[in-house]
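chain below, 83 aa
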Amino acid sequence: MLLAVARDRDLRLRDIAAACRITKRTVQSIVTDLEQAGFLSRARDGRRTHYTLHPDGTLRPPAEAQLPVRGLLELVTHQDNGR
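prediction:
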C-alpha cells in the first residue's frame, strides 16, 4: 500500500484498494495504522485527501528493524521505472 501512495500521493482510497486488490475498508484501516505509526500523514484539500510519506522510519519486523522504509520504496520504484 505504501508503494501505491509513493507512486501517486493523490490516489483515492478506492483507487488504492483496486491497486492492492483489497477492500476499501481494509485500506482505511491500513492508512490509519500507517498514520499512527508515523509512516504517512494525510491532509484534506476540499474533497480530496493528499498523502505524504515519511520514509525515514524503519520497518517493524525485528529482522528488518534496521532497514529504512525509504530504501525499500527506492528499490521497488527504481525497478518500476526500469520497465
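The chain has four helices and two strands. Strands lie at 40-45, 48-53.
thats it, cya
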